[in-house]
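wait is this the right file?? whatever heres the structure
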């Protein structure tokens, strides 16, 4: 590994101009978007930190590979290239491509879940839980308690709480658990990793009870890097080797290639059981396309095959996670409350601590994300009560974490951009007392954070007091 980890481990060949809007233009844009950053137009966003999904900059090797894409409807060699890459780097003998990660989530939920069963996981992810519930399962959070505390310092806050998992098995019976889904890393906890020791321990429990162990492996390369940096015995082990060992404990995985495969579209299921592969191929024909392309062009398969290799490079990972840490440390130095330790793909602002005067039912994270955009043109994402949705009886879910995610696309921005972001958040922090909450004006029934619309709550009236007409007029 290079001794220089602060400089980008690449040269820039092509640039895309950025356009800075005025504050008045941003105020109008956020109103038109219903104070939902998902509904902003990309052209109105100066630095876009909405997501790291599909927003990576591809390499020259990936662009070159795209020119070799085999666009045959069936049996394309581009599928063979992806299949071979997954087997070589992830260790799974079978692969079924999908158009993106949630396509893979849908397929595995339909295959493994019988209505009425239970799915434990190390904190929910929005689309994963939605597919599990639509298939008739009940989700159970079995992550360690530290994950729900933004200020708790723990090297592996994504770990499964083994006692919680055993208690659920005792309560519902192993035969009523469809599978356990272990995310590496855990997005909703702040991009927090899972240790190798914890993965092994979960595997032992699954073997003891005959439970399938699956992974949401969307950010597996970042998880491997954290193991290398934080877990005893791995300091001198390449991240690619750590990732393969990590995945050796799972029966299969869902993958959104739009993250750690460094592409703009794509995903897949990978598994060891040929029976699951056969069922996945049956469903992929119905929902995605032929089993050899899964809703993707051959050029997309080629880019993903190259990208999953590149994402496991140690120098790339040191820079990628170092850039996220750089932004987080700037905010911590300014006294801004963020989830700690800093995660792998984003800096998460603690909206509860940032806006303590805004109750959770007044959507503080959604309000904070909108304010950051108005301040600077930086687009962030809510990860709190809006993302958590409603219970089956219609009440808001009230997550312990009420966060705003500043998500860093891979190989896209420099640290100078991170300084702009930090300065913007600091400016909002300095005027935080003036920020008020939001309320729904339109609420989507499913995954509401994508398309719901909001408006600011009215300013509370001034208290009535004795005085003359002139005094009242001056007061108002």
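ok assuming it is, sequence goes like this
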């Amino acid at each position: 590994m290079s001794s220089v980890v602060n400089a980008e481990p690449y040269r820039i060949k092509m640039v895309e101009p950025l356009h800075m809007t005025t504050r008045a233009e941003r105020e109008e844009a956020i109103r038109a978007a219903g104070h939902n950053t998902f509904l902003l137009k990309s052209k109105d966003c100066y630095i876009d930190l909405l997501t790291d999904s599909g927003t990576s900059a591809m390499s020259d090797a990936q662009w070159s590979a795209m020119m070799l894409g085999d666009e045959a409807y069936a049996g394309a060699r581009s599928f063979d290239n992806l299949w071979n890459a997954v087997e070589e780097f992830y260790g799974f003998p079978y692969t079924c491509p999908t158009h993106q990660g949630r396509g893979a989530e849908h397929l595995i939920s339909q295959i493994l879940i019988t209505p009425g069963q239970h799915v434990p996981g190390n904190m929910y992810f929005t689309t994963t839980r939605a597919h599990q519930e639509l298939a008739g399962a009940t989700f159970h959070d079995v992550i360690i308690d530290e994950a729900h505390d933004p200020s708790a310092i723990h090297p592996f806050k994504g770990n499964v709480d083994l006692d919680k998992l055993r208690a659920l098995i005792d309560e519902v019976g192993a035969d009523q658990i469809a599978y356990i889904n272990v995310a590496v890393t855990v997005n909703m906890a702040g991009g927090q990793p899972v240790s190798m020791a914890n993965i092994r321990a979960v595997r032992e429990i699954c073997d003891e009870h005959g439970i399938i162990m699956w992974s949401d492996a969307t950010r597996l390369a970042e998880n491997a890097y954290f193991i290398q940096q934080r877990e005893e015995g791995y300091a001198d082990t390449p991240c690619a080797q750590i990732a393969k060992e990590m995945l050796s404990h799972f029966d299969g995985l869902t993958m959104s290639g739009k993250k750690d495969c460094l592409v703009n579209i794509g995903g897949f299921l990978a598994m060891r059981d040929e029976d699951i592969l056969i069922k996945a191929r049956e469903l992929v024909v119905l929902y995605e396309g032929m089993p050899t392309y899964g809703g993707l062009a051959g050029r997309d398969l080629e880019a993903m095959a190259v990208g999953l290799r590149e994402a496991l490079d140690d120098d790339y990972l040191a820079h990628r996670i170092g850039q996220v840490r750089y932004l987080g440390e700037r905010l911590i130095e300014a006294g801004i409350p963020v989830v700690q330790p800093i995660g792998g793909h984003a800096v998460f602002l603690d909206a509860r601590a940032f806006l303590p005067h805004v109750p959770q039912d007044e959507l503080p994270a959604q309000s904070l994300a909108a304010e950051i955009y108005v301040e600077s043109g930086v687009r962030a994402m809510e990860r709190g009560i809006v993302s958590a949705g409603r219970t089956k009886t219609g009440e808001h879910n009230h997550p312990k974490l009420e966060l705003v995610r500043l998500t860093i696309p891979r190989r896209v921005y420099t640290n100078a951009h991170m300084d702009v972001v930090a300065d913007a958040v600091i400016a909002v922090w300095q005027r935080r007392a003036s920020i008020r909450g939001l309320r729904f004006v339109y609420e989507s029934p499913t995954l509401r954070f994508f398309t719901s619309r909001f408006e600011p709550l009215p300013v509370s009236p001034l208290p009535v007091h004795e005085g003359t007409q002139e005094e009242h007029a001056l007061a108002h």
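The radius of gyration is 23 Å. so i think its the right one actually
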